[in-house]
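Per reviewer request, we include the raw input and output of the structure prediction for the construct analysed in the revised manuscript.
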Amino acid sequence: MNNPIAEKLTTNIDSIDVNVIRADFPVLDQKVNGKPLVYLDNAATTQKPRQVIDTINEYYRRYNSNIHRGVHSLSEKATAAYEAARETIRDFINAPATQEIIFVRGATEGINLVAQSYGMTNLKTGDEIIISEMEHHSNIVPWQLLCERTGAVLRVIPINDDGELKLEAYQSLLGPKTKLVSIVHISNALGTINPVKQIVDLAHEHDALVLVDGAQATAHTGIDVQALDCDFYVFSGHKMFGPTGIGVLYGKTDLLNAMPPYQSGGDMIKMVTLEKTLFNELPYKFEAGTPHIAGVIGMGAAINYIKSIGLDNIAAYEHDLLDYASAAVSDIKGLKLVGTAKKKTSILSFTLGNIHAHDIGTILDHEGVAVRAGHHCAMPVMERFGIPATARASFALYNTREEVDTLVKALKKCKEIFG
């Protein structure tokens, strides 16, 4: 019997020529410690294609200027490119309006903006915020600080042994005191893909708002904030082949309009006298000072690059690669995967016997293989599984099965060295 899902998956995989894609990434064409670089630290930051590098270079070489202020040609060109990138991002996540796209330094600042602007204005003693046990520190600490300052209470959704949310526990945590749920879309430490739409719908039944941390999601799966109906969504450019130091906060218009400015200074004002300030309209109310203009333009180029390949194609290719890698490492005696959710993507976190993750990372680096070793800014995850750290191989669209084979050989060498 024909399997249309399998046929679609095969078609998507075949539509990617990984050698052509790899040629777009100059950094991959080098040796590390005398070995060809195998870059498997994409969950920390992705490499940048020449299309993004060239776009940023063109800005600095040809029309570097401040935006929104000048009437000269360079300023007008820079402003047009900056705002065109905002529209590209709006379309990428299917936001209803460009005014809902707020530029920040990254997902971390986006979460802090909501915590400080919305949280400090609306939360009070006894109100409850729900997060999960698998969150990155960036989606834990801002809420802890907010609770200390407002008297709100932080509640935590537990995870099971596979690294999946316990949804029954989540439902039991929801109630009349719940004001906000802040949840990761894809876990950086486990690769788990959370059922975000279900989480949002359940929260809205209790009139609670939902913020989704999409830092790990935007390079691997399509995002439609209208379909999700989330109230806020944050992500970072550097995890989706764009520059560092730039990211996006999406928020619903009525919420953003009601929130006070997060920072103050130039461009977030309409009028200033020594007695009073009138704030600018969205999105500029939250974009104080000279922004990361090159970063915004570069992020727009990164999204155009992703769209040229197709997120469905990327997702299918990475799914195939993750399956191959999971099977390949399963033959290594003593290797234990941490995070085996039924729905996961792009990440293999593991321990290897009693060898410390930092030692694994060092040996692999000697073989030219770059992985992440440590707690991945997710200490509660490590505590949940009773381990100090994991080694983490994370994949992107430019990785190959041959690189997975190199990883496996390096891990076997690691075992030999440490006995």
